[in-house]
Amino acid sequence: MARVWRWQRAAPLLLAVLALASSAQALFVIEKGALKIKFPRGAAQAHRDGFDVSMANFGSPKYGGELIGKLVYPDKEHGHPNDCKPDCNFACQNFSSASPPFKLNHQAEPGQRTNYIMLVDRGPHRDDMQACKFAEKVWNAQEAGAQGVIVVNYEDKLTTMEAPDDQDEVSYKYLRNITIPAVFIKKTEGQVLKDLLKPELEDVYVVMDWNDVLPRADKVNWEFWTNSNDMCGAVCNVQREFIKEYKHVARELEGNWTEFTPHYIVWVCPEAYRDSEECKSQCIHKGRYCTPDPDGDLTAGYSGADIVQENLRQLCVFKLANQSGQPWQWWDYVTRFANECKMSEQNYNEECAEKVFNELHGNEWSSLSALRECIGDVTQDADNPLMEVEMKRQRGGGDTGEVYILPTIRINNGQYRGKLSVTEVMRALCAAFVKGKEPPACLKVKEDECRPGSVGDSVCAANKHGKTKCQNTFNGYECVCGPGYVTQTTKDGKLRCLNVNECKTLDAADLGRDCTCPRCACQDVPGSYKCISDLKDECAEDHGGCWRQDFTVSGEKKLFHACQDNIEIYKGNIVIFEVR
Ligand SMILES: *[C@@H]1O[C@H](CO)[C@@H](O)[C@H](O)[C@H]1NC(C)=O
Ligand SMILES: *[C@@H]1O[C@H](CO)[C@@H](O)[C@H](O)[C@H]1NC(C)=O
Ligand SMILES: *[C@@H]1O[C@H](CO)[C@@H](O)[C@H](O)[C@H]1NC(C)=O
Ligand SMILES: *[C@@H]1O[C@H](CO)[C@@H](O)[C@H](O)[C@H]1NC(C)=O
User: Which residues lie in coiled coils (predicted)?
Assistant: First the structure.
């Protein structure tokens, strides 16, 4: 069997993966992203539709976004006379130990850095050289300063670049630290890119685009395929970590925004072996639903049946929690179960599970008897409806791929690719909402495009119509009415910014003495106001040179003059400044 069950060390006898047992055409869907040439323009036009690339199952794809970068191919022929073994273009070596060291952006000031997308080759595909892992190439490229990687195949096929399994200790160490995206391209199309770089006349820029990788919906449906086995090394730890962190997000998103379902992969025991020791130990419901023995030893430790039974319990916890309108209880249950009920502490069992259920006040949002009833008699020679649903979902069908690896995430029926971490998964979930309808929580996982000095910040600040404030949206940024303006909706539904006359709307105390003293005035300006203090009384001296004359009124001498203090003009400022 070519497929690797990464989380499972021992491949036990007899159990068959459901999909393989039931159909020879199990569907494995390759998730495609898009890659386009941006410059040179001639090449961009010649390849207007871009290239199909497949996304790696590790790293950080920028779901909902894109990455523009200068293409670099670290090959001897292309301007980098580095001594690498094997050749630089395979990226199998640490670039800093090449001579001379190969480093992108090493001299650039922050803010003047170029994004580099590194082109590397799969392989080496040669008998005399050992090929290195995809993840290793990507890690080396990242360490050399690349923001993205394109791996070129040695044949005209696409495949999904998988993460190395946890038995490969070395690569597993850096796997979690890969923070850049990687895609895979067919040989011929990779050659097109290499040929563009050859003349070294023009810089080549490409765009990696993840905008339309996942189907979009108003409410995002997603599935997380997991397993309650807690003895599968680093892969299990990563799953546990993810669940523990995601449970906070679940409370925010579940219900109103997303609809989540947990799933558990199921193995089956072939009919003829239902009475064998293997199937008795690894299955429930007389061989119908199985999980391989966690330690590969049927006679010792926990058995496969223990795991399937807990998987079924967790499915029931979800069912009950969801029915009560509190689907997030599943995340809490699973986190606690993993913390408190461990194989290593010999309490991975029903008693501990029910204790956790009670600690989560299961009897308030459901009941222990409902939980037991949902699980039913696991020795029964009959189907269990929940497990049947699992088997059906696992097989996929239509456009939905088969689940063949754990952990797997499906979002709106599309397969998620990338590492299992809250930020990455959230970014993908956010990219599966109809554009502009993302929940506010999505802003947490996007880059700040409004930070001081950024394009968003300066574009908005330069706006003449009051929309001076940069505001992040999941898909970029927008300019909204800045401080000192109010948003008004016009008759035709457009938003415009109206200047606020602070001189009239603010209290004297807020305006301050510089605006309100006897010889001070407040002047409204677009978006703000100005205080004019120490206004000189032009009439004080010689009445400003205006007409004046003494008259005797009722026997008293009085001075009459035609000088009017200009302060009245300022104090009476009533200019309402409108901005269209
Ligand atoms: C790269 O190789 C050099 C020399 O072998 C070593 O000192 C350095 O730690 C390595 N860097 C990484 C990131 O592995
Ligand atoms: C990965 O990141 C962690 C946390 O930042 C760090 O402790 C660890 O050394 C990194 N591993 C490698 C191989 O760089
Ligand atoms: C869902 O929306 C309703 C109504 O807008 C609100 O009362 C409720 O608190 C929201 N639930 C969550 C989990 O945010
Ligand atoms: C969870 O509850 C919602 C709302 O009641 C329902 O639409 C959905 O089908 C339920 N999901 C599952 C897997 O039962």
Answer: none
Architecture of the domain defined by 13-25+215-443? 3-Layer(aba) Sandwich (3.40)
In sequence order, the 6+-apart residues with CB closer than 8 A to the CB of 417 are 31, 55, 56, 57, 61, 160
**50-97: per-residue pLDDT in tens?**
998 988 888 888 888 888 899 999 876 665 667 777 788 888 888 888
What average pLDDT does this structure show over 343-366? 94
Distant-in-sequence contacts of 2-8, Cβ < 8 A, 24+ apart: 3/404, 3/405, 4/162, 4/165, 4/405, 5/292, 5/405, 5/406, 6/163, 6/165, 6/166, 6/235, 6/405, 6/406, 7/227, 7/229, 7/232, 7/235, 7/236, 7/406, 8/232, 8/292
The encoded tokens of residue 26 equal 């199990």
Task: Ligand 3 pocket test: pick from 256, 260, 324 the residue with the most ligand atoms within 8 Å of its Cβ.
Answer: 256
32-209, what's its fold?
Glucose Oxidase; domain 1 (3.50.30)
Residue whose CA is closest, atom 2 of ligand 2? Answer: 177
Does residue 19 carry a pLDDT above 70?
no
Q: How far is the CA of 322 from the centre of ligand 4 (A)?
A: 6
**Per the structure block, which two tokens stand in for 288?**
């119908």
Q: What is the domain partition of the chain in residue ranges?
A: 13-25+215-443, 32-209, 455-499, 505-579
Degrees (nearest 5) of the Cα angle 160, 164, 167? Answer: 150
Q: Which of 483, 529, 482 is nearest to 503 (CA)?
A: 529
Average pLDDT of the chain to the nearest whole number: 83
435 pLDDT more than 70 = yes
Pairwise pLDDT comparison (471 vs 150), residue with the higher score: 150
Distance of CA 12 to the CA centre of its chain: 36
Question: What gap in Å lies between CA 447 and CA 56, rounded to an integer?
Answer: 21
Return the pLDDT at 578.
35
Report the distance separating Cα 248 and Cα 235, nearest Å: 21
Ligand closest to the CA atom of residue 144: 1
User: How far apart are the CA of 94 and the centre of ligand 1, in A?
Assistant: 6
User: What's the pLDDT band for 229 if we cut at 50, 70, 90?
Assistant: confident
Ligand 3 center to 257 CA (angstroms): 9
Residues in the chain: 580
Architecture of 455-499 per CATH? Ribbon (2.10)
Token output for 305: 């049946």
* Ligand 3 atom at minimum distance from 251 CA: 13
Q: Which residues contact 388 (CB under 8 A, 6 or more apart)?
A: none
